[in-house]
């Protein structure tokens, strides 16, 4: 059986903020339109330009992210597939539309622009009284003895390493983690 391919890749600017809705089952769906421009020179050498508008449909989590991150004028890369559907308008006229169902959207703007458009969550700081004392648990004598024993044994082994004639300082430097 022969394979087929339905793939769309667009780079353009949003004409308006995305519109987020929910299906009766509670599934988020966002729609927005992007403009792509084509320029060419006609036979007389004059620069011509044509703008094409594309309707983008985004489902589920990507729909919610789209609604949060994208705004009118945002430059985006959209990847998806073409889908044609038929519906009946308010006047009873049957209409057919072709849309791009997006699988992937990449915002093509600096991160500073994103942080300006996305509302940041407010963090509530818990006030600390300046006269509040912090209790520091005391270290038991046994732990202190263990720590001092391990420290003493490590310094003895380091001293014996330095006095060993076949190990040079350069070799010891190679063992350092930095």
What does this structure look like?
- By secondary structure, the protein is α+β, with helices and mostly antiparallel strands.
- It has a domain at 8-117: OB fold (Dihydrolipoamide Acetyltransferase, E2P), CATH 2.40.50.
- The chain contains four helices and six strands; from the N terminus they run E-E-E-E-H-E-E-H-H-H.
- The chain has helices at residues 60-69, 111-117, 141-163, 169-174; strands spanning 8-14, 19-22, 28-41, 47-59, 75-88, 94-107.
- Strands 1-3-4-6-5 form a five-stranded mixed beta barrel.
- The protein is globular and about 55 Å long.
Short descriptors:
OB fold (Dihydrolipoamide Acetyltransferase, E2P); NA-bd_OB-fold; 5-stranded mixed beta barrel; 178 residues; alpha+beta; 4 helices; globular
């Amino acid at each position: 059986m022969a394979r087929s391919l339905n793939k769309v890749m667009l780079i353009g600017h949003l004409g308006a903020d995305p519109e987020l809705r929910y299906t009766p089952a509670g599934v988020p769906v966002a729609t927005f339109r992007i403009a792509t421009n084509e320029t060419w020179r006609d036979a007389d050498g004059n620069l011509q330009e044509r703008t094409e508008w594309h309707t983008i449909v985004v489902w589920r989590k990507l729909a919610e992210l789209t609604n949060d991150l994208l705004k009118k004028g945002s430059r985006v890369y959209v990847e998806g597939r073409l889908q044609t559907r038929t519906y009946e308008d308010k006047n009873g006229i049957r209409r057919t539309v072709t849309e791009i169902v997006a699988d992937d959207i990449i915002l093509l703007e600096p991160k500073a622009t994103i942080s300006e458009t996305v509302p940041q969550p407010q963090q509530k700081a818990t006030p600390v009284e300046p006269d509040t004392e912090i209790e520091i648990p005391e270290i038991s004598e046994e732990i202190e003895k263990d720590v001092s024993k391990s420290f003493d044994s490590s310094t003895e082994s380091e001293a014996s390493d330095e006095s060993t004639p076949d190990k040079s300082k350069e070799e010891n430097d190679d063992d350092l983690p930095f």
